[in-house]
Structures are given as structure tokens and as C-alpha cells.
UniProtKB/TrEMBL annotation, chains A, B, C, D:
The keyword Transcription regulation applies. Residues 36-55 bind DNA. PANTHER family: HTH-TYPE TRANSCRIPTIONAL REGULATOR BETI (PTHR30055:SF234), HTH-TYPE TRANSCRIPTIONAL REGULATOR RUTR (PTHR30055). GO terms for molecular function: DNA-binding transcription factor activity; transcription cis-regulatory region binding. Coiled coil: none annotated. Residues 14-73 form the HTH tetR-type domain. SUPFAM superfamilies: Homeodomain-like (SSF46689), Tetracyclin repressor-like, C-terminal domain (SSF48498). Keywords: DNA-binding, Transcription, Transcription regulation. It comes from the Bacteria. This is TetR/AcrR family transcriptional regulator.
Amino acid sequence: MTADPETRLRADARRNRDQILAAAKQMFFDDGPDVPMEEIARAAGVGVGTLYRRFPDREALIRAVAQDNFARVLTEARAAAEEPTGWQALVRLLGQSRELQLSVRLALVSPQASVIIREDRGTQEFRNAILDVLDDIVHRAQDEGSLRADVSTGDVAIVVSLLLRRFPAKGETAELMIERVLALLLEGLRARPDSVLPGRPITVEDLYLR
Amino acid sequence: MTADPETRLRADARRNRDQILAAAKQMFFDDGPDVPMEEIARAAGVGVGTLYRRFPDREALIRAVAQDNFARVLTEARAAAEEPTGWQALVRLLGQSRELQLSVRLALVSPQASVIIREDRGTQEFRNAILDVLDDIVHRAQDEGSLRADVSTGDVAIVVSLLLRRFPAKGETAELMIERVLALLLEGLRARPDSVLPGRPITVEDLYLR
Amino acid sequence: MTADPETRLRADARRNRDQILAAAKQMFFDDGPDVPMEEIARAAGVGVGTLYRRFPDREALIRAVAQDNFARVLTEARAAAEEPTGWQALVRLLGQSRELQLSVRLALVSPQASVIIREDRGTQEFRNAILDVLDDIVHRAQDEGSLRADVSTGDVAIVVSLLLRRFPAKGETAELMIERVLALLLEGLRARPDSVLPGRPITVEDLYLR
Amino acid sequence: MTADPETRLRADARRNRDQILAAAKQMFFDDGPDVPMEEIARAAGVGVGTLYRRFPDREALIRAVAQDNFARVLTEARAAAEEPTGWQALVRLLGQSRELQLSVRLALVSPQASVIIREDRGTQEFRNAILDVLDDIVHRAQDEGSLRADVSTGDVAIVVSLLLRRFPAKGETAELMIERVLALLLEGLRARPDSVLPGRPITVEDLYLR
DNA sequence: TATGAATGAGGATTCATTCAT
DNA sequence: TATGAATGAATCCTCATTCAT
């Protein structure tokens, strides 16, 4: 009757929910977004019923995983934005992409999952917040003269997304690949007097408009 | 009973097979590698029975699509290698990647498809042949002094693969995105006296070794 | 620990039980006897746990609803029997059937529910008591010469049950339907010199013997 | 390639379909409209897959059974209408109701099934055709002076529906019950100079309007 | 040989019932 | 004792694959 048991219950439920989310994230990334719900439940150490109590169907689970992922990305983007210069912030953000890999790749996988995530309001909000932070970083870096002037935030977002792909190797070799691709991309992004990109800058509005 | 009807039959069978492959490729890319076999058959204008006569199961179909894709890539790579300079060959090859998108993305999608393709002997042979061609181009471009010396064929292969991703837009905007990312990557790949990449070059042996 | 809280508890428990019964009755009639137990609990304003404390399983709940229903029918039948003449008692009893509709229809719906109810001892006793009252009324009306002599109590019971059906309309129209069907049946039941029914009278023993 | 094999195939499929319909009808009436689809399939001697190929889901199966039922009723109603007098036609139609029992009871059972059937276009058309036939019979019998003048087609339809209920007995006893109730109702319906029903006639428009 | 009907295993989802709080 | 979270068995439905025509 007091608030205490209720709170403890909530703590339990919360823990359950977190375990399910963690298990789902892992399995989505290892095996794709079609893994049997029952396996997710088993990996989370709960019964299917519990999984369905928290997430009414697979879509809801995918949305929840996506929101959780994007929330983490937002946190890291904000931390990166604390760097003294815009360029440093950009480098840090891109460097972290490696850690965000697991986090965001889901959205890139199956066409169905893409649609679900793209249409999810919660994820949209996180995405917009992330793009706002990125926008700041980009402008700062351009004002400093370190980032080439003929790119816009959309271009940089695409560069970030390139780094989220699955690389064709495991462990340290995969790390090395990311590191080197990142270095190549930074070379390309650095302001250079003689270089000009084709077409027009990609803006945030160009993204996700399918 | 003469050779004639048999030949005509073969022609028919060939046409059937091609239709199925084309339909499967399209549907794999539009809807992922889990599209019902029956839908593929319908799109190909044949019954499921016919589909199964040509391809004993889904894996076989995936393998066939992959081989067909890689064969096309090989053809285009060889054509690109005809360019007068190594750098031009490289630019052309990377530029064509956009057209290879549809062709190869399958391997990047579902973890299951990845495994099937990676373990398929036929695809492996095509892949090796492609990498041989790429290897030639890379060396020529480096000998010319246009491609930075601290990359190896594996690095370039990864750059190619980056361009095969699904970009977050449709139609012309997606084309524009690819064009600009390609330009950024070429900037990064260009030989520069003052620039050095971290780690060691990625070799062909580093690829796909998971 | 004193008797007082225990008594209050009983009052509470009683109220709980009544709420559950009322909710269950309503939902059984609106949605059939398969409504989720959880929805019944919600409608009753209690948790499922409480519902299960009172009624160990769905069958027990169905039995309880049936007994409650039949008890009401018995009460009304006894009240009808107070009428001055047997025919008036019969008319009143049949007229009340309309109000008994909700009460008894459950037994007519799903085959499963029928079996549960038919085999329930408590319900059987109520049913027998009701049939005893009806038997009295029938004999009185026949002794008066108003009810045809070639029917027996079983025939009349069946006529009652006919009026418990769900009529294909809502609200006043449904009332009207019942009223007119009732009038037709009373015409048929009225003693008439020239009319004779086929077969033999249906006795109480003929009922429910499946 | 000729029409022959196709026809034979259709014959097979048709036979399968008929078996499924027959099995479903039987089981719906024995066990209610919630019997597991798998049991229906087993009773029909086919796999679930076949059942689902013919009837995409349970609703479709219920609709098909209902249409089949109503079609039979229509046939019998038309046959009854051939009787020389309207009253004889009416008696025959009501007498056949006993055989229609199995046929139509489905619509009276679960609220869900009722809704599905009521909203099914095909069933609606059969129902309307049946009511047209009934309307003719009613008018003929009234013109003859044998059917009471203060009923309308809706009243008679309701009387028919009363006879479709499940009677509380099996076998011959149930037959006897129907026979006697039918006789009582015919007594009530017979034109009588001194008798008048309450309210106004129930028209076809009053039916099913919930 | 082509077709598409049949099969049944597999995976999603629901809900009766139990049990920890 | 009341609550509602957890469990898992039961059922729905889909689709890969086989096989009769």
C-alpha cells in the first residue's frame, strides 16, 4: 500500500525492460531484425509473454531499440560538441561513429525496419536533435576555416552514416579499417583552396525524404 | 527427339532462368532477401515449381544472384582498367560503383545472406578476379604518383564498398549524394606530400576474414 | 484480530464478489463467454488476482453467473405464481421472460458453456425448483380450463426458453418483437375445443437429457 | 496444356473446398465458431495450409459457411413456395426450419460471428432473396384469409428464426419439441376473428437494423 | 517440363493461470 | 489480501518446399 513496493516493482519491471532492450539490440545486429521473438526473450532471460507485455509487437520493439540507440548518439554528439574547436568536435564525433555502429546500424538493414524507424515519432525527434548538434559543429568548423565551405550539414551526416556500415572484418582489423576510412574522409572534408565538390551542398532537408 | 526441340527448350529454360534472376535481384533489393519465393516466381512470370526446378532452394537463388552481380562488376572493372592512366581507371571504377549499387548491396544486407555469399565458391572466384583487376589499377595509379602510396588494394576495395550503401534519399538527390561522397573520397585518396594515414595498409587478405 | 475487521472484510469481499459477477454477466452477454478474464477483472474494477481468488477458474465463474441468474428466475417465477389465476400467472411469467433474457441466455450460447452449466449441481437445483413452480402454474391453468390440456410443463418450459433468444433488433423494436411473439404463443397455448397438438406432451424429464 | 487437366484440378480443388465447408459447418455447430482451425482442417482431411489457401482467415470461412447455409435456405424456401396455397407453403417452410437448424444457427451464436455474417455482402443478398420469397408466401396466405392479417413478413421471419434454436434434447425428442412448438405457433398465426396482436406489424425493415 | 495445390513446420501473438510483492 | 507482472501453452497464420496433374 505504500509507495515502496510499487517503486520496487517498477525497478524490477525497468530492469526487465532494459534486459529485453539490450538483448534485442544485440540480436538485431547479429542476426537481423527478423530474429524470432522467442529467442530474444530467451536471451533476455524472460518468457515471451513478458516481452510482449512490454512491447506489443515486433515493431514496437524495433522502435524502442531505435529510440534507445538514437538517444545514445545524441548524448555522444553533445559530448563531442564540448571540444574546443569545431574541427576537433567533428573529428571526435566521426571517431565515435565506430562506437555508434552497433547503435544505429539497425536503421540501415532491412527495408521494413527502415520504414518503421523512419516513421517513428520518437526517433524522429532524437534524429532532429542530433542533426541540430551536428549543424552547430559544422558551422563552427567552417567559421574556423578548417572544414571546407562547400559542404553542408547533410553532407557531413552522410559521411557519418558511411562509417556505420558493417566492415568486412572482425575485431582489430575492422577497427583499423574504420580508422583509415575515417582518415581518408577527414582529408576529403578539410578545407582546401583548390578543391571544389560537384553539385550543391546536401542539406538536412534532403535527408530521409524518400 | 531431334536436337532442335531440345535446343529450343534450352533457349526457353535460359530465358526462364534469366527472368527469375532479374526478378529475384529486384525484389531482394526492394524488399530484402526474405521475400516469399512465391512472389519472386510471380514477378518472374513463372510458377513456384519452375523456380524450384532452376534453383533448389533460396540459398541457391541468393548464390546465383550474387554470382551474376559479381560477374557484372568484373566486366565493368575490366572495362575501367582500359583507361589510359591508373588514376582515370580508378575514378571510372569508383564512378561506376553507383551502378553497381543494385548489384552488390545484397551482400551487405542480412547477416544470413552475407554468410551464404561469403561461403559461395563461385562468388569467391569472381571476387578474387575483381580484386586482381583492382590490384592492377591501384599499382598503376601509385606508380604514376597520383594515388597516395600508403593505401593498398584492400583500402580501395573498402572505399568501393562504401559507395554501395543505400543512401537516405530517392532519385536525383541520391545520385547527388553519391557524387559528392565520391568526390570527397577521391580527395582523400589523392597523393599528398604532407598526409599520412594511421596504421598499416589494408591488404586483400584482410578482407572477409571474419 | 477482533471480529470487527473480519466482518468488514467479509463485507468487502462480498462487494468484490458482486462486482465481479455483475461485470462477468454483462460481458458474457455482450461479447460471449470467451472474453478475457483480464477484461472482466478490469470491468469489475479489481485485479485478475482478486478475480481468481474468488473464482478459481473460468468455469467456476460461469457456474456462479449461471446460479445467480437462475436464482433470479426462481424469485420471479415465485412472484408470478402469486397471481390469482393460473393463466394470469403464466402470462406474467412469460411476460417476464423478456427481463430474464439477459439472465439465462448464457446457457444458450456456446456449446461449452452449455455443458458447464448443465452439469453444475447448484444450477440444477435452481432449475428444478423453477420447474416445480412452473408445474404448479401449468396445472392450475389447466384445471381452470384456460391452458390447453394437451401440453405439459416441459412444453411450457420450452416456450419460455424461446423468448430468451436474442432478437434481431435493438431497443424498442426488440421489445416489440418479444411482445408480439409472446402474444402469438399465448394464442397457441390457449385452450381450444377443436385443436390438438401432434405427438405427446413434453415432460420435465424430457428436458436437458442430451 | 489442354483444358482437361485444369478441369480435373478444379474438380479436386472444388472437392477439397466442399469438404472443408462441410467440416467447418459441422464443427461450428458442435463446438462454436472458435474451434481451432487445425481441427477443422483435420476433420476435412486436409492440412491447415490448404484450409488457409481456400479461406484466408477464420472470418472468410465463417462467411463462406453462412453463404452456403443461406443459399440452401433460399432453395428450400423457393420449393416451399410451389405449394398450391399460401398457407401450405407457410406450413411447409416452417416445417423445414427443422432441417435449416444446422444451416442457420451459426448466425445466432457468438456476437462476433453475428457481426461478421451481418456485414457480409453475399449473405445479405441471400437473406434478401429469402425474405422476398417469404413476403410472397405471406401475402398469398393473407389473401386467402388463412394467415392473420395483423402480421407482416418480419413477424413471420422471427417465427422462423425461433425454430432455429438449439432445443434442450437430442434425437427424436428434439424433433418432437420442434413439431409441437411449430404447431403452437401455427395456431397463433392462424387468422381468427376475435384476436389482435399488440403493437404494429414487424416489417422486413425492422430486422437486423441494430 | 510447367504449374500451382497441398503439406506442415515455424514463428507471432494471446491469454489463462500462477506467484512475487 | 489485492495487485498486476511473469510464464508458457495454445492457437493463428505464413511460407518454404514437395508433388500430383
